[in-house]
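Thread: Flp pilus assembly protein TadB, structure

OP (GT): Posting the sequence first so everyone is looking at the same thing. Length is 306 residues per the record. Can we get the C-alpha coordinates written out before standup tomorrow? I want them in the notebook alongside the other entries.
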Amino acid sequence: MTWALLTGALTGLGVYALVRVFLRPRPGVATMIARIEGGQRSMSTHTMTASEADGLSGHVQGAMNRLADRLEVMAVDRGWELGGIRTDLALMGRTRGSHLATKVAVGGLLFLLAPVVWSVLRISGMNLPTAVPAILALGLAAFGFFMPDLALKSEAATRRNDFRRTVGVFLDLVAMNLAGGRGLPEALLAAATVSDHWTLVRIRQALANARLYGTTPWVALGDLGRDIGLEELQDLAGALSLAADDGAKIRSSLSARAATMRRKELTAAEGAEGEKSQSMLVAQMLISTAFLIFLAYPAVSQLLAA
Protein backbone atom coordinates (compact mmCIF):
# COMPACT_ATOMS: atom_id res chain seq x y z
CA MET A 1 0.00 0.00 0.00
CA THR A 2 2.83 2.37 0.85
CA TRP A 3 4.60 1.76 -2.45
CA ALA A 4 1.34 2.27 -4.34
CA LEU A 5 0.78 5.64 -2.64
CA LEU A 6 4.37 6.67 -3.30
CA THR A 7 4.14 5.69 -6.95
CA GLY A 8 0.86 7.58 -7.36
CA ALA A 9 2.34 10.68 -5.70
CA LEU A 10 5.38 10.62 -7.99
CA THR A 11 3.18 10.17 -11.04
CA GLY A 12 0.97 13.07 -10.00
CA LEU A 13 4.02 15.26 -9.40
CA GLY A 14 5.35 14.41 -12.85
CA VAL A 15 2.03 15.23 -14.50
CA TYR A 16 1.86 18.54 -12.61
CA ALA A 17 5.41 19.45 -13.67
CA LEU A 18 4.60 18.56 -17.28
CA VAL A 19 1.48 20.76 -17.23
CA ARG A 20 3.45 23.65 -15.74
CA VAL A 21 6.09 23.31 -18.44
CA PHE A 22 3.53 23.59 -21.23
CA LEU A 23 1.79 26.58 -19.65
CA ARG A 24 3.03 29.77 -21.24
CA PRO A 25 4.77 31.97 -18.64
CA ARG A 26 4.69 35.74 -18.99
CA PRO A 27 8.27 36.93 -19.54
CA GLY A 28 9.34 40.31 -18.22
CA VAL A 29 11.28 43.06 -19.96
CA ALA A 30 14.60 41.86 -18.55
CA THR A 31 13.86 38.38 -19.84
CA MET A 32 13.13 39.62 -23.35
CA ILE A 33 16.27 41.78 -23.42
CA ALA A 34 18.44 38.92 -22.18
CA ARG A 35 16.94 36.59 -24.77
CA ILE A 36 17.54 39.07 -27.61
CA GLU A 37 21.12 39.74 -26.53
CA GLY A 38 21.84 36.04 -26.28
CA GLY A 39 20.50 35.39 -29.76
CA GLN A 40 17.98 32.88 -28.48
CA ARG A 41 15.08 31.69 -30.58
CA SER A 42 12.55 31.54 -27.74
CA MET A 43 9.04 32.76 -28.48
CA SER A 44 9.97 33.29 -32.13
CA THR A 45 7.56 32.23 -34.85
CA HIS A 46 8.29 29.00 -36.64
CA THR A 47 6.94 28.40 -40.13
CA MET A 48 6.71 24.70 -40.84
CA THR A 49 7.42 23.34 -44.26
CA ALA A 50 5.07 20.99 -46.08
CA SER A 51 7.04 17.94 -44.96
CA GLU A 52 6.89 19.11 -41.34
CA ALA A 53 3.19 19.78 -41.50
CA ASP A 54 2.41 16.24 -42.69
CA GLY A 55 2.77 13.13 -40.60
CA LEU A 56 3.75 12.36 -37.06
CA SER A 57 7.28 13.78 -37.40
CA GLY A 58 5.92 17.28 -38.00
CA HIS A 59 3.73 17.13 -34.89
CA VAL A 60 6.59 15.77 -32.80
CA GLN A 61 8.94 18.47 -34.05
CA GLY A 62 6.35 21.15 -33.36
CA ALA A 63 5.78 19.83 -29.84
CA MET A 64 9.53 19.78 -29.21
CA ASN A 65 9.85 23.36 -30.44
CA ARG A 66 7.04 24.52 -28.16
CA LEU A 67 8.55 22.68 -25.22
CA ALA A 68 11.96 24.23 -26.00
CA ASP A 69 10.39 27.69 -26.04
CA ARG A 70 8.71 27.15 -22.66
CA LEU A 71 11.87 25.81 -21.09
CA GLU A 72 13.95 28.63 -22.57
CA VAL A 73 11.64 31.22 -21.01
CA MET A 74 11.73 29.34 -17.72
CA ALA A 75 15.54 29.15 -17.78
CA VAL A 76 15.91 32.87 -18.48
CA ASP A 77 13.33 33.84 -15.85
CA ARG A 78 14.99 31.75 -13.17
CA GLY A 79 18.57 32.57 -14.18
CA TRP A 80 19.64 29.03 -15.05
CA GLU A 81 23.13 29.41 -16.50
CA LEU A 82 23.76 25.64 -16.87
CA GLY A 83 27.44 26.08 -15.98
CA GLY A 84 29.94 24.69 -18.46
CA ILE A 85 27.17 23.31 -20.64
CA ARG A 86 26.61 26.81 -22.05
CA THR A 87 29.97 26.80 -23.84
CA ASP A 88 29.26 23.37 -25.29
CA LEU A 89 25.83 24.51 -26.46
CA ALA A 90 27.33 27.64 -28.03
CA LEU A 91 29.92 25.51 -29.82
CA MET A 92 27.25 23.12 -31.12
CA GLY A 93 24.93 25.97 -32.11
CA ARG A 94 22.10 24.86 -29.83
CA THR A 95 19.94 26.77 -27.39
CA ARG A 96 19.35 26.07 -23.74
CA GLY A 97 15.69 25.44 -24.46
CA SER A 98 16.33 22.76 -27.06
CA HIS A 99 18.82 21.01 -24.79
CA LEU A 100 16.47 21.09 -21.81
CA ALA A 101 13.62 19.84 -24.01
CA THR A 102 15.77 16.91 -25.12
CA LYS A 103 16.61 16.07 -21.51
CA VAL A 104 12.94 16.16 -20.48
CA ALA A 105 11.80 14.15 -23.50
CA VAL A 106 14.42 11.40 -23.12
CA GLY A 107 13.85 11.17 -19.38
CA GLY A 108 10.08 10.99 -19.85
CA LEU A 109 10.31 8.29 -22.51
CA LEU A 110 12.56 6.11 -20.37
CA PHE A 111 10.31 6.73 -17.38
CA LEU A 112 7.33 5.41 -19.36
CA LEU A 113 9.41 2.48 -20.61
CA ALA A 114 9.76 0.98 -17.12
CA PRO A 115 6.06 -0.07 -16.72
CA VAL A 116 6.16 -1.64 -20.18
CA VAL A 117 9.23 -3.70 -19.27
CA TRP A 118 7.65 -4.70 -15.97
CA SER A 119 4.43 -5.78 -17.72
CA VAL A 120 6.35 -7.88 -20.23
CA LEU A 121 8.27 -9.58 -17.41
CA ARG A 122 5.06 -10.27 -15.49
CA ILE A 123 3.41 -11.75 -18.58
CA SER A 124 6.45 -13.95 -19.20
CA GLY A 125 5.99 -15.48 -15.75
CA MET A 126 8.47 -13.59 -13.58
CA ASN A 127 6.91 -12.67 -10.24
CA LEU A 128 8.46 -9.30 -9.38
CA PRO A 129 7.58 -7.07 -6.41
CA THR A 130 5.40 -4.04 -7.04
CA ALA A 131 8.22 -1.71 -5.98
CA VAL A 132 10.37 -2.79 -8.93
CA PRO A 133 8.63 -0.65 -11.60
CA ALA A 134 8.81 2.48 -9.45
CA ILE A 135 12.52 2.07 -8.73
CA LEU A 136 13.22 1.10 -12.34
CA ALA A 137 11.23 4.05 -13.66
CA LEU A 138 13.08 6.53 -11.44
CA GLY A 139 16.45 5.04 -12.38
CA LEU A 140 15.71 5.11 -16.10
CA ALA A 141 14.31 8.64 -15.87
CA ALA A 142 17.45 9.89 -14.11
CA PHE A 143 19.65 8.13 -16.67
CA GLY A 144 17.66 9.56 -19.57
CA PHE A 145 17.72 13.05 -18.06
CA PHE A 146 21.52 13.15 -17.80
CA MET A 147 22.30 11.16 -20.95
CA PRO A 148 22.01 14.22 -23.30
CA ASP A 149 24.60 16.01 -21.14
CA LEU A 150 27.10 13.20 -21.67
CA ALA A 151 26.39 13.10 -25.40
CA LEU A 152 26.73 16.87 -25.64
CA LYS A 153 30.05 16.83 -23.80
CA SER A 154 31.46 14.14 -26.10
CA GLU A 155 30.32 15.89 -29.29
CA ALA A 156 31.57 19.27 -28.07
CA ALA A 157 34.99 17.84 -27.22
CA THR A 158 35.33 16.46 -30.75
CA ARG A 159 34.23 19.70 -32.38
CA ARG A 160 36.45 21.77 -30.08
CA ASN A 161 39.49 19.75 -31.14
CA ASP A 162 38.48 20.29 -34.76
CA PHE A 163 38.18 24.02 -34.12
CA ARG A 164 41.58 24.04 -32.43
CA ARG A 165 43.21 22.51 -35.51
CA THR A 166 41.47 25.04 -37.73
CA VAL A 167 42.83 27.94 -35.67
CA GLY A 168 46.39 26.84 -36.51
CA VAL A 169 45.59 26.82 -40.22
CA PHE A 170 43.80 30.16 -39.86
CA LEU A 171 46.91 31.73 -38.33
CA ASP A 172 49.05 30.60 -41.26
CA LEU A 173 46.53 32.07 -43.70
CA VAL A 174 46.48 35.38 -41.84
CA ALA A 175 50.31 35.49 -41.86
CA MET A 176 50.36 34.88 -45.63
CA ASN A 177 47.81 37.65 -46.21
CA LEU A 178 49.88 40.01 -44.08
CA ALA A 179 52.95 39.10 -46.12
CA GLY A 180 50.97 40.04 -49.24
CA GLY A 181 50.56 43.61 -48.00
CA ARG A 182 47.06 43.51 -46.53
CA GLY A 183 46.10 45.15 -43.29
CA LEU A 184 45.27 43.11 -40.23
CA PRO A 185 41.43 43.36 -40.42
CA GLU A 186 41.46 42.59 -44.14
CA ALA A 187 43.87 39.69 -43.60
CA LEU A 188 41.64 38.19 -40.92
CA LEU A 189 38.53 38.41 -43.09
CA ALA A 190 40.33 37.08 -46.19
CA ALA A 191 41.69 34.11 -44.24
CA ALA A 192 38.20 33.30 -42.96
CA THR A 193 36.68 33.27 -46.46
CA VAL A 194 38.91 30.62 -48.05
CA SER A 195 36.56 27.76 -47.12
CA ASP A 196 33.01 27.02 -46.02
CA HIS A 197 34.07 24.70 -43.21
CA TRP A 198 31.90 25.27 -40.18
CA THR A 199 34.82 26.53 -38.08
CA LEU A 200 35.76 29.21 -40.58
CA VAL A 201 32.08 30.07 -40.97
CA ARG A 202 31.89 30.77 -37.22
CA ILE A 203 35.01 32.94 -37.41
CA ARG A 204 33.65 34.75 -40.46
CA GLN A 205 30.35 35.42 -38.71
CA ALA A 206 32.17 36.80 -35.67
CA LEU A 207 34.24 39.13 -37.85
CA ALA A 208 31.15 40.27 -39.75
CA ASN A 209 29.31 40.97 -36.49
CA ALA A 210 32.30 42.98 -35.28
CA ARG A 211 32.04 45.18 -38.35
CA LEU A 212 28.31 45.69 -37.75
CA TYR A 213 28.72 46.43 -34.04
CA GLY A 214 31.69 48.73 -34.57
CA THR A 215 34.17 46.66 -32.56
CA THR A 216 37.62 45.42 -33.53
CA PRO A 217 38.07 41.95 -35.06
CA TRP A 218 40.30 40.75 -32.21
CA VAL A 219 37.63 41.66 -29.66
CA ALA A 220 35.15 39.60 -31.67
CA LEU A 221 37.56 36.67 -31.78
CA GLY A 222 38.07 36.91 -28.03
CA ASP A 223 34.32 36.94 -27.43
CA LEU A 224 33.92 33.92 -29.69
CA GLY A 225 36.66 32.09 -27.80
CA ARG A 226 34.96 32.80 -24.47
CA ASP A 227 31.56 31.73 -25.80
CA ILE A 228 32.75 28.36 -27.10
CA GLY A 229 35.42 27.75 -24.45
CA LEU A 230 38.45 27.86 -26.78
CA GLU A 231 41.55 29.31 -25.12
CA GLU A 232 43.49 29.51 -28.38
CA LEU A 233 41.14 32.14 -29.77
CA GLN A 234 41.32 34.15 -26.55
CA ASP A 235 45.13 34.08 -26.63
CA LEU A 236 45.06 35.09 -30.29
CA ALA A 237 42.77 38.03 -29.51
CA GLY A 238 45.11 39.18 -26.74
CA ALA A 239 48.15 38.97 -29.02
CA LEU A 240 46.40 40.87 -31.82
CA SER A 241 45.20 43.60 -29.48
CA LEU A 242 48.73 44.15 -28.13
CA ALA A 243 50.43 44.31 -31.54
CA ALA A 244 47.73 45.71 -33.81
CA ASP A 245 49.96 48.48 -35.17
CA ASP A 246 53.07 46.45 -36.05
CA GLY A 247 52.42 44.19 -39.03
CA ALA A 248 55.84 42.55 -39.20
CA LYS A 249 55.81 41.48 -35.57
CA ILE A 250 52.26 40.22 -35.93
CA ARG A 251 53.24 38.13 -38.93
CA SER A 252 56.17 36.47 -37.20
CA SER A 253 54.18 36.02 -34.01
CA LEU A 254 51.29 34.37 -35.85
CA SER A 255 53.64 32.01 -37.71
CA ALA A 256 55.34 31.02 -34.46
CA ARG A 257 52.01 30.53 -32.72
CA ALA A 258 50.74 28.33 -35.57
CA ALA A 259 53.90 26.21 -35.44
CA THR A 260 53.51 25.82 -31.67
CA MET A 261 49.89 24.73 -32.07
CA ARG A 262 50.87 22.16 -34.70
CA ARG A 263 53.57 20.72 -32.44
CA LYS A 264 51.07 20.55 -29.60
CA GLU A 265 48.54 18.75 -31.78
CA LEU A 266 51.22 16.35 -33.00
CA THR A 267 52.28 15.59 -29.42
CA ALA A 268 48.67 14.99 -28.39
CA ALA A 269 48.13 12.70 -31.38
CA GLU A 270 51.27 10.71 -30.56
CA GLY A 271 50.13 10.38 -26.95
CA ALA A 272 46.70 9.14 -28.01
CA GLU A 273 48.25 6.59 -30.37
CA GLY A 274 50.57 5.44 -27.59
CA GLU A 275 47.60 4.88 -25.29
CA LYS A 276 45.88 2.84 -27.98
CA SER A 277 49.03 0.76 -28.50
CA GLN A 278 49.23 0.05 -24.76
CA SER A 279 45.57 -0.96 -24.74
CA MET A 280 46.13 -3.35 -27.63
CA LEU A 281 49.16 -4.80 -25.84
CA VAL A 282 47.14 -5.46 -22.68
CA ALA A 283 44.37 -7.07 -24.75
CA GLN A 284 46.90 -9.33 -26.49
CA MET A 285 48.41 -10.35 -23.16
CA LEU A 286 44.98 -11.25 -21.77
CA ILE A 287 44.14 -13.31 -24.85
CA SER A 288 47.49 -15.14 -24.67
CA THR A 289 47.01 -15.85 -20.96
CA ALA A 290 43.51 -17.19 -21.53
CA PHE A 291 44.77 -19.39 -24.38
CA LEU A 292 47.57 -20.83 -22.20
CA ILE A 293 45.07 -21.57 -19.42
CA PHE A 294 42.84 -23.29 -21.97
CA LEU A 295 45.74 -25.49 -23.13
CA ALA A 296 46.96 -26.31 -19.63
CA TYR A 297 43.58 -27.01 -18.04
CA PRO A 298 43.17 -30.66 -19.25
CA ALA A 299 46.64 -31.66 -18.03
CA VAL A 300 46.22 -29.90 -14.68
CA SER A 301 42.77 -31.43 -14.16
CA GLN A 302 44.19 -34.92 -14.87
CA LEU A 303 47.02 -34.40 -12.40
CA LEU A 304 44.63 -33.23 -9.71
CA ALA A 305 42.27 -36.15 -10.31
CA ALA A 306 45.09 -38.74 -10.07
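GT: Both are above now. Quick notes for whoever picks this up: The chain has twelve helices and no strands. The radius of gyration is 28 Å.
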